[in-house]
Design brief:
The complex is a heterodimer of chains A (215) and B (256). With 215 residues, chain A is of the alpha/beta class. Helix content of chain A is 25%, strand content 33%. Chain B has one domain: Aldolase class I (TIM Barrel, Alpha-Beta Barrel). Chain B is 36% helix and 27% strand. Classes of the chains: A alpha/beta (215), B alpha/beta (256).
Protein backbone atom coordinates (compact mmCIF):
# COMPACT_ATOMS: atom_id res chain seq x y z
CA UNK A 1 0.00 0.00 0.00
CA UNK A 2 1.33 3.41 -1.00
CA UNK A 3 0.61 6.37 1.21
CA UNK A 4 0.17 10.01 0.26
CA UNK A 5 0.29 12.51 3.11
CA UNK A 6 -1.61 15.77 2.85
CA UNK A 7 -0.02 18.04 5.45
CA UNK A 8 -2.64 19.56 7.74
CA UNK A 9 -1.18 22.42 9.74
CA UNK A 10 -4.42 24.23 10.44
CA UNK A 11 -4.23 26.56 7.44
CA UNK A 12 -7.48 26.20 5.59
CA UNK A 13 -9.83 23.55 4.49
CA UNK A 14 -8.11 20.55 2.96
CA UNK A 15 -11.13 18.45 2.20
CA UNK A 16 -11.14 19.43 -1.47
CA UNK A 17 -7.49 18.50 -1.86
CA UNK A 18 -8.06 15.10 -0.27
CA UNK A 19 -11.21 14.44 -2.31
CA UNK A 20 -9.49 15.29 -5.58
CA UNK A 21 -6.45 13.14 -4.75
CA UNK A 22 -8.71 10.24 -3.77
CA UNK A 23 -10.56 10.67 -7.04
CA UNK A 24 -7.40 10.00 -9.07
CA UNK A 25 -5.48 7.70 -6.68
CA UNK A 26 -4.61 4.21 -7.94
CA UNK A 27 -6.19 1.32 -6.02
CA UNK A 28 -2.99 0.66 -4.05
CA UNK A 29 -2.68 4.24 -2.80
CA UNK A 30 -4.17 5.74 0.32
CA UNK A 31 -4.58 9.49 0.85
CA UNK A 32 -4.41 10.72 4.43
CA UNK A 33 -4.53 14.08 6.18
CA UNK A 34 -1.59 14.11 8.57
CA UNK A 35 -0.50 16.52 11.26
CA UNK A 36 2.48 14.82 12.84
CA UNK A 37 6.12 14.73 11.81
CA UNK A 38 6.35 10.92 11.89
CA UNK A 39 3.33 10.50 9.64
CA UNK A 40 4.77 12.90 7.08
CA UNK A 41 8.06 11.03 6.91
CA UNK A 42 6.28 7.68 6.55
CA UNK A 43 4.56 8.84 3.38
CA UNK A 44 5.70 7.90 -0.12
CA UNK A 45 4.57 11.27 -1.39
CA UNK A 46 3.73 14.52 0.33
CA UNK A 47 1.18 17.17 -0.65
CA UNK A 48 1.69 20.54 1.00
CA UNK A 49 -1.34 22.84 0.56
CA UNK A 50 -1.99 26.11 2.31
CA UNK A 51 -4.22 29.14 2.48
CA UNK A 52 -4.07 32.43 4.26
CA UNK A 53 -1.19 34.71 5.10
CA UNK A 54 2.52 33.81 4.94
CA UNK A 55 3.16 34.83 8.54
CA UNK A 56 0.31 32.64 9.84
CA UNK A 57 1.47 29.69 7.74
CA UNK A 58 5.04 29.96 8.98
CA UNK A 59 3.88 30.40 12.59
CA UNK A 60 1.69 27.30 12.28
CA UNK A 61 4.61 25.28 10.88
CA UNK A 62 6.91 26.46 13.66
CA UNK A 63 4.35 25.74 16.41
CA UNK A 64 3.92 22.23 15.09
CA UNK A 65 7.69 21.79 14.70
CA UNK A 66 7.21 20.81 11.07
CA UNK A 67 9.95 22.89 9.46
CA UNK A 68 12.78 20.32 9.59
CA UNK A 69 10.36 17.57 8.62
CA UNK A 70 9.11 19.41 5.55
CA UNK A 71 12.66 20.15 4.51
CA UNK A 72 13.51 16.47 4.78
CA UNK A 73 10.34 15.36 2.99
CA UNK A 74 10.83 17.85 0.16
CA UNK A 75 14.33 16.61 -0.56
CA UNK A 76 13.72 12.88 -0.27
CA UNK A 77 10.37 12.11 -1.93
CA UNK A 78 7.93 13.56 -4.46
CA UNK A 79 6.60 16.75 -2.91
CA UNK A 80 3.73 18.83 -4.28
CA UNK A 81 3.21 22.39 -3.04
CA UNK A 82 -0.13 24.05 -3.74
CA UNK A 83 -0.90 27.78 -3.49
CA UNK A 84 0.61 28.97 -0.14
CA UNK A 85 2.36 25.62 -0.20
CA UNK A 86 4.35 27.06 -3.09
CA UNK A 87 4.93 30.51 -1.61
CA UNK A 88 6.33 29.39 1.74
CA UNK A 89 8.93 27.22 -0.03
CA UNK A 90 10.73 30.42 -1.03
CA UNK A 91 13.34 32.28 1.04
CA UNK A 92 11.15 35.17 2.01
CA UNK A 93 7.74 36.72 1.36
CA UNK A 94 6.91 40.42 1.28
CA UNK A 95 3.57 39.60 2.94
CA UNK A 96 2.90 40.85 6.48
CA UNK A 97 5.74 43.36 6.27
CA UNK A 98 8.25 40.65 5.40
CA UNK A 99 8.16 37.01 6.48
CA UNK A 100 11.03 34.54 6.42
CA UNK A 101 9.92 31.32 4.76
CA UNK A 102 11.30 27.80 4.36
CA UNK A 103 14.10 28.67 1.94
CA UNK A 104 13.82 25.45 -0.06
CA UNK A 105 13.72 27.38 -3.31
CA UNK A 106 15.79 30.51 -3.80
CA UNK A 107 13.73 33.63 -4.36
CA UNK A 108 11.01 35.81 -2.93
CA UNK A 109 7.26 36.41 -2.94
CA UNK A 110 5.74 39.71 -4.09
CA UNK A 111 2.30 41.25 -4.22
CA UNK A 112 0.70 41.98 -7.57
CA UNK A 113 1.02 45.64 -8.49
CA UNK A 114 -2.10 47.69 -7.81
CA UNK A 115 -3.81 49.47 -10.70
CA UNK A 116 -2.63 47.24 -13.51
CA UNK A 117 -5.00 47.14 -16.48
CA UNK A 118 -5.71 44.51 -19.11
CA UNK A 119 -5.61 44.87 -22.90
CA UNK A 120 -9.09 46.47 -22.84
CA UNK A 121 -8.00 48.97 -20.22
CA UNK A 122 -10.06 47.28 -17.51
CA UNK A 123 -8.65 47.21 -13.99
CA UNK A 124 -6.94 43.96 -12.99
CA UNK A 125 -8.42 42.97 -9.66
CA UNK A 126 -6.53 41.64 -6.67
CA UNK A 127 -6.84 38.82 -5.72
CA UNK A 128 -6.06 37.30 -9.09
CA UNK A 129 -9.10 35.06 -9.04
CA UNK A 130 -10.39 32.68 -11.67
CA UNK A 131 -9.24 30.55 -14.58
CA UNK A 132 -5.98 31.56 -16.16
CA UNK A 133 -3.56 29.85 -18.50
CA UNK A 134 -0.42 28.11 -17.37
CA UNK A 135 2.28 28.20 -20.01
CA UNK A 136 4.57 25.20 -19.57
CA UNK A 137 8.08 26.60 -19.92
CA UNK A 138 9.71 23.19 -19.87
CA UNK A 139 8.80 19.53 -20.00
CA UNK A 140 8.01 17.89 -16.67
CA UNK A 141 6.37 14.56 -15.76
CA UNK A 142 3.57 16.48 -14.00
CA UNK A 143 2.62 18.23 -17.25
CA UNK A 144 2.12 14.89 -19.01
CA UNK A 145 -1.20 14.86 -20.89
CA UNK A 146 -1.98 18.51 -20.07
CA UNK A 147 -2.32 20.79 -23.09
CA UNK A 148 0.01 23.76 -23.35
CA UNK A 149 -1.65 26.91 -21.93
CA UNK A 150 -4.45 24.97 -20.19
CA UNK A 151 -6.50 26.95 -17.73
CA UNK A 152 -6.32 26.36 -14.00
CA UNK A 153 -8.16 28.02 -11.11
CA UNK A 154 -6.20 30.66 -9.19
CA UNK A 155 -6.92 32.70 -6.04
CA UNK A 156 -3.99 34.73 -4.74
CA UNK A 157 -2.66 38.23 -4.21
CA UNK A 158 1.05 37.35 -3.99
CA UNK A 159 3.22 35.46 -6.47
CA UNK A 160 6.66 33.88 -6.31
CA UNK A 161 9.75 35.38 -7.92
CA UNK A 162 12.36 32.60 -8.13
CA UNK A 163 16.00 33.71 -8.15
CA UNK A 164 16.76 31.38 -11.05
CA UNK A 165 14.73 30.89 -14.18
CA UNK A 166 15.97 27.29 -14.12
CA UNK A 167 13.35 26.30 -11.53
CA UNK A 168 10.40 27.85 -13.38
CA UNK A 169 8.15 25.15 -14.86
CA UNK A 170 5.22 27.35 -15.83
CA UNK A 171 4.26 30.99 -16.20
CA UNK A 172 0.96 32.86 -16.18
CA UNK A 173 0.09 36.29 -17.47
CA UNK A 174 -1.64 38.74 -15.15
CA UNK A 175 -0.55 42.19 -16.14
CA UNK A 176 3.00 40.91 -16.19
CA UNK A 177 3.98 37.25 -16.51
CA UNK A 178 4.73 35.52 -13.21
CA UNK A 179 6.06 32.09 -12.25
CA UNK A 180 2.98 29.95 -11.59
CA UNK A 181 4.78 26.61 -11.28
CA UNK A 182 8.26 25.72 -10.09
CA UNK A 183 10.15 22.44 -10.18
CA UNK A 184 13.37 21.55 -8.43
CA UNK A 185 14.48 17.97 -7.84
CA UNK A 186 11.72 16.30 -5.79
CA UNK A 187 9.66 19.46 -5.51
CA UNK A 188 6.90 20.53 -7.86
CA UNK A 189 4.86 23.47 -6.65
CA UNK A 190 2.05 25.35 -8.28
CA UNK A 191 0.23 28.58 -7.48
CA UNK A 192 -3.20 27.52 -8.73
CA UNK A 193 -5.53 24.97 -7.16
CA UNK A 194 -5.34 21.72 -9.17
CA UNK A 195 -8.03 20.27 -6.87
CA UNK A 196 -10.43 22.92 -8.21
CA UNK A 197 -9.21 23.01 -11.79
CA UNK A 198 -11.45 20.37 -13.39
CA UNK A 199 -9.77 17.99 -15.89
CA UNK A 200 -6.29 19.59 -16.18
CA UNK A 201 -6.04 19.81 -12.39
CA UNK A 202 -7.03 16.19 -11.91
CA UNK A 203 -4.52 15.13 -14.57
CA UNK A 204 -1.75 16.96 -12.74
CA UNK A 205 -2.69 15.27 -9.46
CA UNK A 206 -2.82 11.91 -11.21
CA UNK A 207 0.63 12.51 -12.69
CA UNK A 208 1.90 13.25 -9.20
CA UNK A 209 0.76 9.77 -8.11
CA UNK A 210 3.18 8.22 -10.58
CA UNK A 211 6.03 10.71 -10.41
CA UNK A 212 9.15 9.41 -8.75
CA UNK A 213 10.81 12.80 -8.31
CA UNK A 214 13.22 14.59 -10.59
CA UNK A 215 12.66 16.04 -14.00
CA UNK B 1 -5.08 35.85 -19.96
CA UNK B 2 -7.56 35.56 -17.10
CA UNK B 3 -10.96 34.35 -18.31
CA UNK B 4 -14.22 36.00 -17.39
CA UNK B 5 -16.14 33.49 -15.33
CA UNK B 6 -19.63 32.15 -15.95
CA UNK B 7 -21.34 31.01 -12.78
CA UNK B 8 -24.65 29.17 -12.82
CA UNK B 9 -26.56 29.77 -9.60
CA UNK B 10 -28.82 27.19 -8.02
CA UNK B 11 -31.41 28.33 -5.52
CA UNK B 12 -31.75 25.45 -3.07
CA UNK B 13 -34.73 24.99 -0.77
CA UNK B 14 -34.58 22.03 1.62
CA UNK B 15 -32.17 20.23 -0.66
CA UNK B 16 -33.99 20.86 -3.96
CA UNK B 17 -33.11 23.33 -6.71
CA UNK B 18 -35.68 26.05 -7.33
CA UNK B 19 -35.56 29.41 -9.08
CA UNK B 20 -37.43 32.39 -7.84
CA UNK B 21 -38.75 34.85 -10.35
CA UNK B 22 -38.71 38.18 -8.53
CA UNK B 23 -38.54 36.01 -5.40
CA UNK B 24 -42.25 35.22 -5.59
CA UNK B 25 -43.07 32.67 -8.27
CA UNK B 26 -40.91 29.63 -7.61
CA UNK B 27 -40.44 26.61 -9.89
CA UNK B 28 -38.69 23.31 -9.09
CA UNK B 29 -35.80 22.50 -11.42
CA UNK B 30 -34.30 19.35 -9.98
CA UNK B 31 -31.71 17.63 -7.88
CA UNK B 32 -28.70 19.82 -6.95
CA UNK B 33 -26.11 17.09 -7.46
CA UNK B 34 -27.44 16.26 -10.92
CA UNK B 35 -27.63 19.87 -11.93
CA UNK B 36 -24.14 20.65 -10.60
CA UNK B 37 -22.67 17.68 -12.45
CA UNK B 38 -24.31 18.84 -15.65
CA UNK B 39 -23.02 22.39 -15.27
CA UNK B 40 -19.53 21.10 -14.57
CA UNK B 41 -19.67 18.99 -17.74
CA UNK B 42 -20.84 22.02 -19.73
CA UNK B 43 -17.83 23.99 -18.54
CA UNK B 44 -19.20 26.15 -15.71
CA UNK B 45 -16.34 28.04 -14.06
CA UNK B 46 -17.86 27.84 -10.60
CA UNK B 47 -21.21 26.92 -9.11
CA UNK B 48 -23.08 28.99 -6.56
CA UNK B 49 -25.72 27.54 -4.28
CA UNK B 50 -28.09 29.99 -2.70
CA UNK B 51 -29.79 28.33 0.24
CA UNK B 52 -33.29 29.75 0.63
CA UNK B 53 -34.45 27.16 3.15
CA UNK B 54 -36.67 28.95 5.62
CA UNK B 55 -37.20 26.19 8.18
CA UNK B 56 -34.39 25.96 10.71
CA UNK B 57 -35.00 22.18 10.97
CA UNK B 58 -33.82 21.78 7.41
CA UNK B 59 -30.83 24.10 7.51
CA UNK B 60 -28.42 21.18 7.55
CA UNK B 61 -29.63 19.98 4.15
CA UNK B 62 -27.38 22.47 2.32
CA UNK B 63 -24.32 21.03 4.08
CA UNK B 64 -25.21 17.57 2.73
CA UNK B 65 -25.81 18.97 -0.73
CA UNK B 66 -22.33 20.54 -0.72
CA UNK B 67 -20.77 17.31 0.58
CA UNK B 68 -22.33 15.29 -2.22
CA UNK B 69 -21.46 17.77 -4.95
CA UNK B 70 -17.86 18.15 -3.73
CA UNK B 71 -17.35 14.39 -4.04
CA UNK B 72 -17.48 14.58 -7.80
CA UNK B 73 -17.35 18.16 -9.00
CA UNK B 74 -13.85 19.66 -8.96
CA UNK B 75 -14.49 23.34 -9.60
CA UNK B 76 -15.04 26.08 -7.01
CA UNK B 77 -18.30 25.93 -5.07
CA UNK B 78 -19.84 28.92 -3.31
CA UNK B 79 -22.70 28.79 -0.84
CA UNK B 80 -24.84 31.71 0.26
CA UNK B 81 -27.99 32.19 2.29
CA UNK B 82 -28.55 32.18 6.01
CA UNK B 83 -24.90 32.52 7.00
CA UNK B 84 -24.71 34.35 10.32
CA UNK B 85 -21.87 32.85 12.34
CA UNK B 86 -18.27 31.83 11.72
CA UNK B 87 -19.44 28.35 12.69
CA UNK B 88 -21.86 28.31 9.74
CA UNK B 89 -18.93 29.18 7.48
CA UNK B 90 -16.66 26.50 8.88
CA UNK B 91 -19.33 23.83 8.47
CA UNK B 92 -19.79 24.70 4.81
CA UNK B 93 -16.06 24.93 4.08
CA UNK B 94 -15.49 21.61 5.80
CA UNK B 95 -18.26 20.10 3.69
CA UNK B 96 -16.37 21.11 0.55
CA UNK B 97 -17.43 24.68 -0.22
CA UNK B 98 -14.62 27.01 -1.31
CA UNK B 99 -16.35 30.28 -0.61
CA UNK B 100 -19.35 31.50 1.30
CA UNK B 101 -21.44 34.48 0.45
CA UNK B 102 -22.59 36.73 3.29
CA UNK B 103 -25.52 39.03 2.72
CA UNK B 104 -27.94 40.19 5.40
CA UNK B 105 -25.60 39.34 8.27
CA UNK B 106 -23.08 41.81 6.84
CA UNK B 107 -25.69 44.56 6.79
CA UNK B 108 -26.76 43.99 10.36
CA UNK B 109 -23.23 43.39 11.61
CA UNK B 110 -20.50 44.71 9.29
CA UNK B 111 -17.84 43.45 11.70
CA UNK B 112 -18.97 39.91 10.95
CA UNK B 113 -17.23 40.18 7.58
CA UNK B 114 -14.01 41.25 9.27
CA UNK B 115 -14.27 38.45 11.81
CA UNK B 116 -15.00 35.87 9.12
CA UNK B 117 -12.15 37.05 6.88
CA UNK B 118 -9.76 36.94 9.82
CA UNK B 119 -10.77 33.40 10.69
CA UNK B 120 -11.00 31.74 7.27
CA UNK B 121 -9.25 34.19 4.94
CA UNK B 122 -10.60 36.77 2.51
CA UNK B 123 -10.39 34.31 -0.38
CA UNK B 124 -13.32 32.41 1.15
CA UNK B 125 -15.50 35.46 1.81
CA UNK B 126 -17.88 36.80 -0.82
CA UNK B 127 -20.09 39.67 0.27
CA UNK B 128 -23.45 39.66 -1.51
CA UNK B 129 -24.90 43.10 -2.15
CA UNK B 130 -28.53 43.57 -3.13
CA UNK B 131 -28.88 47.05 -4.56
CA UNK B 132 -31.77 49.06 -5.92
CA UNK B 133 -31.79 52.38 -7.72
CA UNK B 134 -33.09 55.15 -5.45
CA UNK B 135 -32.37 58.21 -7.60
CA UNK B 136 -35.31 59.69 -9.46
CA UNK B 137 -35.19 59.96 -13.27
CA UNK B 138 -32.94 62.85 -14.26
CA UNK B 139 -31.00 62.81 -10.97
CA UNK B 140 -27.45 61.47 -10.80
CA UNK B 141 -27.66 57.68 -10.44
CA UNK B 142 -27.65 56.38 -6.89
CA UNK B 143 -28.26 52.91 -5.51
CA UNK B 144 -28.96 51.69 -1.99
CA UNK B 145 -28.59 48.39 -0.23
CA UNK B 146 -31.87 46.55 0.34
CA UNK B 147 -32.56 43.51 2.50
CA UNK B 148 -35.40 41.00 2.74
CA UNK B 149 -35.49 40.14 -0.95
CA UNK B 150 -35.42 43.78 -1.98
CA UNK B 151 -38.27 44.95 0.24
CA UNK B 152 -36.41 46.79 3.00
CA UNK B 153 -34.21 49.80 2.32
CA UNK B 154 -31.22 50.31 4.61
CA UNK B 155 -30.18 53.83 3.64
CA UNK B 156 -26.70 52.52 2.80
CA UNK B 157 -25.17 53.80 -0.43
CA UNK B 158 -24.24 50.78 -2.56
CA UNK B 159 -20.83 52.04 -3.73
CA UNK B 160 -19.73 53.11 -0.27
CA UNK B 161 -20.99 49.86 1.15
CA UNK B 162 -19.05 47.78 -1.37
CA UNK B 163 -15.86 49.68 -0.57
CA UNK B 164 -16.44 49.24 3.14
CA UNK B 165 -16.96 45.50 2.73
CA UNK B 166 -13.70 45.21 0.80
CA UNK B 167 -11.92 47.16 3.54
CA UNK B 168 -13.40 44.68 6.03
CA UNK B 169 -11.95 41.74 4.14
CA UNK B 170 -14.39 40.73 1.40
CA UNK B 171 -12.45 38.82 -1.25
CA UNK B 172 -15.14 39.22 -3.86
CA UNK B 173 -18.46 41.06 -4.33
CA UNK B 174 -21.61 39.36 -5.63
CA UNK B 175 -23.72 42.24 -6.88
CA UNK B 176 -27.43 41.75 -7.53
CA UNK B 177 -29.67 44.41 -8.96
CA UNK B 178 -33.01 44.05 -7.22
CA UNK B 179 -34.58 46.12 -9.99
CA UNK B 180 -33.50 43.58 -12.58
CA UNK B 181 -33.57 40.29 -10.71
CA UNK B 182 -36.04 37.96 -12.39
CA UNK B 183 -36.95 40.43 -15.13
CA UNK B 184 -34.74 38.92 -17.89
CA UNK B 185 -33.98 42.45 -19.12
CA UNK B 186 -30.24 42.23 -18.48
CA UNK B 187 -27.94 43.40 -15.71
CA UNK B 188 -28.14 46.93 -14.35
CA UNK B 189 -25.01 47.94 -16.26
CA UNK B 190 -24.44 51.41 -14.75
CA UNK B 191 -24.67 49.86 -11.27
CA UNK B 192 -22.35 47.01 -12.15
CA UNK B 193 -19.79 49.31 -13.68
CA UNK B 194 -19.93 51.79 -10.81
CA UNK B 195 -19.27 49.08 -8.24
CA UNK B 196 -16.68 47.16 -10.26
CA UNK B 197 -14.67 50.29 -10.99
CA UNK B 198 -14.86 51.35 -7.34
CA UNK B 199 -13.39 48.24 -5.71
CA UNK B 200 -10.10 46.37 -6.00
CA UNK B 201 -11.61 42.86 -5.73
CA UNK B 202 -13.51 40.89 -8.39
CA UNK B 203 -17.20 41.65 -8.89
CA UNK B 204 -19.76 39.07 -9.99
CA UNK B 205 -22.74 40.61 -11.79
CA UNK B 206 -26.13 39.09 -11.04
CA UNK B 207 -29.80 39.76 -11.61
CA UNK B 208 -31.68 40.02 -14.86
CA UNK B 209 -30.01 37.75 -17.41
CA UNK B 210 -32.53 36.76 -20.08
CA UNK B 211 -30.32 36.22 -23.12
CA UNK B 212 -26.69 35.54 -23.93
CA UNK B 213 -25.97 39.10 -25.03
CA UNK B 214 -26.65 40.19 -21.45
CA UNK B 215 -23.68 38.13 -20.26
CA UNK B 216 -21.41 39.87 -22.78
CA UNK B 217 -22.76 43.29 -21.77
CA UNK B 218 -22.12 42.54 -18.10
CA UNK B 219 -18.44 42.08 -18.87
CA UNK B 220 -17.84 44.65 -21.58
CA UNK B 221 -20.20 47.42 -20.40
CA UNK B 222 -20.52 46.51 -16.73
CA UNK B 223 -16.82 45.68 -16.22
CA UNK B 224 -17.81 42.57 -14.28
CA UNK B 225 -15.15 39.94 -13.62
CA UNK B 226 -17.74 37.18 -13.58
CA UNK B 227 -21.39 36.80 -14.50
CA UNK B 228 -23.96 34.78 -12.63
CA UNK B 229 -27.21 33.48 -14.05
CA UNK B 230 -29.83 30.93 -13.16
CA UNK B 231 -32.91 30.50 -15.27
CA UNK B 232 -31.33 30.73 -18.73
CA UNK B 233 -29.28 27.68 -17.78
CA UNK B 234 -31.78 25.80 -15.65
CA UNK B 235 -34.39 25.25 -18.27
CA UNK B 236 -31.88 24.30 -20.94
CA UNK B 237 -32.58 27.44 -22.97
CA UNK B 238 -28.81 27.68 -23.29
CA UNK B 239 -25.96 25.54 -22.09
CA UNK B 240 -23.00 27.11 -20.34
CA UNK B 241 -20.89 26.06 -23.32
CA UNK B 242 -23.16 27.93 -25.75
CA UNK B 243 -22.91 30.97 -23.53
CA UNK B 244 -19.12 30.79 -23.61
CA UNK B 245 -18.98 30.31 -27.37
CA UNK B 246 -21.24 33.32 -27.77
CA UNK B 247 -19.02 35.40 -25.49
CA UNK B 248 -15.84 34.29 -27.21
CA UNK B 249 -17.29 35.22 -30.61
CA UNK B 250 -17.72 38.74 -29.23
CA UNK B 251 -14.15 38.94 -28.06
CA UNK B 252 -14.62 38.01 -24.39
CA UNK B 253 -11.88 35.80 -22.94
CA UNK B 254 -13.51 32.59 -21.63
CA UNK B 255 -12.43 29.09 -20.61
CA UNK B 256 -13.58 26.69 -23.31
Amino acid sequence: MKFIAVVDYGMGNLRSVVKALEHVAPADTRVRLVEGADDILEADRVVFPGQGAARDCMAALRDRKLIPVLTEAATTRPFLGICMGLQVLMDRSDENGGTDCLGLIAGGVRRFEDHQVDAQGQRLKIPHMGWNQVHQTRAHPLWEGIDQDSRFYFVHSYHVVPASYQVVAGTTQYGLPFASAVAQDHIFAIQCHPEKSAAPGLTLLKNFMHWTGGV
Amino acid sequence: MLAKRIIPCLDVDSGRVVKGVNFVDIRDAGDPVEVARRYDAEGADEITFLDITASSDERETIVHVVEQVAEEVFIPLTVGGGIRKVDDIRRLLNAGADKVSINTAAVFNPDFVREAADKVGSQCIVVAIDAKQVSAPGEPLRWEIFTHGGRKPTGLDAIEWAQRMVANGAGEILLTSMDRDGTRQGFDLPLTRAISDAVSVPVIASGGVGELQHLVDGVTEGHADAVLAASIFHFAEHTVEEAKQFMRAQGVEVRL
